[in-house]
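User: quick one, fold this
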Amino acid sequence: MGVWTLQRAGKGIPNASLPFHHAVPSLTHMALVELERAGFLKFVISQNVDSLHLRSGFPREKLAELHGNSFKEICPCCKTEYLRDFEIETIGLKDTPRRCSDKNCGARLKDTVLDWDDALPPEEMNLATEHCRSADLVLCLGTSLQITPACNMPLMSIKNGGRVAIVNLQATPKDKKASLVIHGLVDKVIAGVMSKLSLRIPPYIRTDFVQLTLRHSLKKKCVRWTLRVTSIHGLRAPLPFLQSVKVSFPERPDLKSVVLKEQPFSLQRETSMNKPFFMLLTLNFSDGCSCLSSSIGWPVDFQKRKDSFVRDRALVLRELYSAAQRESCIGQQEILERENLPRAETSIHGIVTNIVRYDTEDEKLAPPKNDLMNHSRSNPAKRHVEGTDCHSSLPKKLKYFLKDKKLNC
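Assistant:
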């Protein structure tokens, strides 16, 4: 049963086994990414606020989030969007604690999640309507089709000669108008579709970011310095993927190690100006990550200045993605940029914190349980063990629908 069905039956809603910020895209999320890359899928319309479509890597310009995104802020003036790795503190299009980073703007940001009385965002609605009208096939996946006006959008394609296919556990009010209805698990059906199309479901590889700052001031022959481990979204923004940070000095037994347990992570020390040292930061990950920790080495010499640089972020992320996929493990990290000022050094690092495989040929890494009350998700790892033949389970009518169709979901 889905959440709404459980509520109507007076039954309790299951608790999520993971925090919202650690939710993992389902098999279907990742399949949609590949369907878009292959040219089958043209647009996705989502009523979810969990950010999983963007987290999966689906293109923002081909996605309409009708009810907003719990991890996204927007500038009301210049319309710049800011995707965060933590849940925004407010809902209902209210002001948040942060401001637009554009020096020519600086307006207070707003959350994007609608409250009950808020109107749907016109930009998202216009795009969704346009694509529904032009689609020759609309797939309705894991939705009860009861929330207006979104529930009526798929029918727009019918008026223009298109068709509608519905995949949901329970019957929907629009079943009679659909050309195909499948009552079943969305993941299982989509796995069959991918098999029929000979498309491989890509793994989900998550990269998180951390900012390291070392500020110092001179005090006779000593240096007083402060280390901060913070979010790239601001000094006060949370780091949801970090539980603690251990700071050690392997080559300096006179400097004691310390474990920083409270955010914002900060350490103050005084050391000799003439004695360089090597600092090792062990980042201990929180629950929901696929490994326990990752380490960053930092050679410190206050008498020498390092070069500043900024690397191509997209290129670095591709390198991390390829390394994690090739090595079938996580914890890889790369530095994206470094800025050196007379009294401070700041660097930003990308770290692979999770990898989930969905393809039946890859059994090395099983996806973690992600019970976020979404009845459309099943456990791909279980299907691997059982050896389910997705190709043979694909309904014949759906095989017909897959011929030369441009899909909207």
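User: anything notable?
Assistant: Confidence is low (pLDDT under 50) at residues 361-406.
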